Amino acid sequence: LPRLERHLGTLAVVGGVAPLLGLLGTVTGMIHTFQLVTVFGSGDARLLSGGISEALVTTEFGLAIAIPVLLVHAFLARRARAVLSAMEQTALTLVNHLSGLGEGVQ
User: How far apart are CA 106 and CA 103, in angstroms?
Assistant: First the structure.
């Protein structure tokens, strides 16, 4: 059973960390933008657009990674639980069947 769930933890971590990395990129992009405003003033939109673009792109990449990874994680976790449940049900049926066979033997 560990094989069924082996990489689920990794998927959960990637799905959780990706948006945080995107947020980190957003923060660094905005810091860069504010540094440009401090040095050059706020009059040149071309200077500001680079930092804002950096902020938006990193957010986009973080979400673009996290969303499908979390969906795959949820699917695989649900599938692993279903397989485990089916195995438990089969084992219980087998034990009940075998214990019933033993009752008739003297």
Answer: 8
The full DSSP string for the chain is -HHHHTTHHHHHHHHHHHHHHHHHHHHHHHHHHHHHHHHH-S--HHHHHHHHHHHHHHHHHHHHHHHHHHHHHHHHHHHHHHHHHHHHHHHHHHHHHHHHHHHT--
Mean pLDDT of 47-55: 85
Per this entry, what is the length of the chain?
Answer: 106
pLDDT, position 7: 86
* Comparison of pLDDT for 64 and 34, the residue scoring more: 64
Within the chain, what is the greatest distance between any pair of CA atoms?
Answer: 97
CB count in 10 Å sphere of residue 80:
16
Q: Is the pTM of this model over 0.85?
A: no
> Where are the domains positioned within the chain?
2-100
Looking at the chain, the whole-number percentage of residues with pLDDT higher than 70 is 93
